[in-house]
Structures are given as structure tokens and as C-alpha cells.
Automatic annotation (TrEMBL):
Keywords: ATP-binding, DNA replication, Nucleotide-binding, Nucleus. One of its GO terms (molecular function) is DNA binding. Residues 13-92 form the Replication factor C C-terminal domain. Belongs to the activator 1 small subunits family. It comes from the Eukaryota. InterPro entries: DNA_pol3_clamp-load_cplx_C, Rep_factorC_C. The keyword Chaperone does not apply. One of its GO terms (cellular component) is nucleus. This is Replication factor C C-terminal domain-containing protein. SUPFAM superfamilies: post-AAA+ oligomerization domain-like. It holds the Pfam family Rep_fac_C.
């Protein structure tokens, strides 16, 4: 008996990623918040949302320090999700950090 395993049953459209990335670059958190609400309303699992990581890493117009701040938050959010945290709150926090990093805001004190 052979079993066919599908590794990805949900593909988030590239337009969703581009909209969120553009909202974060616009320095307007309200736009990013709206996009987060849309992602959650569409029912996309946050684990697939981490594909945005590729867009951040491949972006040529973002400095390494900004990429590091965003990628660190991706790792923290992933850990929190494994521990049972709320997807909406983790995505919103991720987008807040991404907006701050891409807008060159100073990094806040770490807790």
C-alpha cells in the first residue's frame, strides 16, 4: 500500500505577501494591521505565512541589520506558535516589528 503525502495543501497567493510587505514599507501600521486581519479572515495558517521570510531575505533594498531584526522576530513567533500562542497576536507582533525595522525605527528594549 502506497501513501501519497502532500507537504503543502495551502498556498498563500504571492499578492498577499506583496501587499503585507508593501504595507510594512509604507510606514503605516494601520495598513499592515488591515492586511493581518485579512490574512486571519481568509483562514491562512500562520506557518505558511512564514514564506514572507523569503521576500525579506531576497530584498536588495533592505540592509542586513533590518533583515536580521525581521528574521529574528520570525524565529521568535515560530517558537511562540509551537508553545501554543495565538496566531493573530503573533502575526500582528511580527508585522509591528517588520514595520519598525523597515522604517529604520530604533529597536526597543528586549524583554
Amino acid at each position: 500500500m502506497s501513501v501519497k503525502v502532500t507537504t503543502c495543501f495551502c498556498v498563500i497567493p504571492n499578492e498577499v505577501f506583496q501587499a503585507i510587505f508593501s504595507a510594512c514599507r509604507s510606514d503605516n501600521f494601520d495598513l499592515a494591521n488591515k492586511d493581518v486581519n485579512n490574512v486571519i479572515a481568509e483562514g491562512y495558517p500562520l506557518s505558511y505565512f512564514f514564506q514572507l521570510y523569503d521576500i525579506v531575505v531576497d530584498a536588495d533594498n533592505i540592509c542586513d541589520e533590518q533583515k536580521a531584526r525581521v528574521c529574528k522576530k520570525f524565529a521568535e513567533a515560530d517558537k511562540c506558535l509551537v508553545d501554543g500562542a495565538d496566531e493573530y497576536l503573533q502575526l500582528l507582533k511580527q508585522q509591528a516589528v517588520q514595520c519598525a525595522a523597515l522604517s529604520n525605527m530604533p529597536q526597543d528594549m528586549a524583554f
